[in-house]
RNA sequence: GGCCCCGUCGUCUAGUGGCCUAGGAUAUCUGGUUCUCAUCCAGAAGAUCAGGGGUUCGAAUCCCCUCGGGGCUACCA
């Protein structure tokens, strides 16, 4: 059975690039009727950010990427939080030492620093000089019992090569001589990522490791650990990175990088999933709009792209607009709730929605598009009432006639429009001209939903009031 | 610097030796619909397939070199 996992480290906001890869992990697991696991990799105490674990969980829930095992839902291989599994890693690290595949290292950070500096000066690659690699077991025991600080390092073979068959990249080979003797267990008793990820993926029976390309060059270290332990290696699929507009790794300065930010900016989870799934992966079918279910049906690892993709906000906006338009108005009003003040009249909101559904790109657009429906006073420059070459006098006169005609008209779209068009003809105004003046009087702006729909939602009383207000402005 | 990965319209991509004088989407522009703004519809422009060599009757597709971009190079993930 296929088992994939998302293994975030709680060091900040859920990054949109990781989330894209997570979507791949999720879609693949679902496509294969496998399991999707969430595991928190909190092995670096110093970088941990309080609350970020909760944010990650909240973000996944919001996106609808439900996990089968992990925090909150449990599972047969728990706990799913690495800081609660320390003993396991320690045991495994010691076992590697006993197997002769790893060794204790007593070098101080200061010495390591000096070694690296010297290497840099000589133009050599910075790496551990294997100073402690051949310490005798007796000496190690002696120093350990004196409570000397130590780490456990991987004893990388000096010769040979390590290669693997990456599902998206094909065969990738590294010379063992190029691989550093990686620290596996830190002096504080915590594992490094490299140890923890292998131990847990094995323990949790994860057989498909799908992750970002930044991990490609550490994969041989992981394979070496699997081999040292005599464990079966998983299948690897390294997905391309997501880049910013300048082609460097997507970061803060390119705009929003956090999942929660997109939620707060009014993006729909279904739009985000659709958009992100198509960054670095493409379906066989030549179309863009896919529901989560359709993505699950279509997804395959083989169609993951090799080259990195640039995050294009314009296209996300297009997707979001598409999904907003598809929403049932009732549903849209639900989604809008976090974006409108709680004292807004919900009945009025429902009446306004159909007028702006085609005009919204994000949920956040609702307020700026419609605020004039919800307040009594509107503020605008009276010049907007004056159409090209029209004087104040004739405009006032026109508005007076509009008032008159509207008051007499039945409060129906058809009748209102007929009355106003008739009036325009009588006044020898182009309908558009007259409509624009009315529009400004009613809304304070020049771009709005269609005029008569707007009137109907505004109501007769408010319509009349605002027209009178405009007359005052013009006097 | 070293190692590894990558290179098709601005962007996301289709393409796995002939269907490619390279298709779709988005963005841009133009036109239509229209009371404005959008939506919607139609159309245009936009890629000498990074460049150069091969292989082949034939290459975006296979090989080599060059160039360019990216990732990694921590007791971070």
How would you describe this protein?
This protein has 475 residues and is mainly alpha-helical. The chain has three domains: 85-239, Rossmann fold (3-Layer(aba) Sandwich); 259-365, Glutamyl-tRNA Synthetase, domain 2; 382-474, Orthogonal Bundle (Arc Repressor Mutant, subunit A), CATH 1.10.10.350. It has helices at 16-31, 52-63, 86-98, 109-121, 137-145, 193-203, 219-229, 259-264, 269-277, 292-298, 313-326, 329-336, 346-356, 366-374, 392-408, 413-427, 431-443, 451-458, 460-474; strands at residues 3-6, 35-38, 102-105, 151-154, 161-166, 170-175, 183-185, 208-212, 235-239, 242-243, 309-310. The strands form five sheets. The chain has a three-stranded antiparallel beta sheet. α17 (431-443) packs across α19. It is elongated. It binds one RNA strand of 77 nucleotides through α4, β6, β7, α6 and β11.
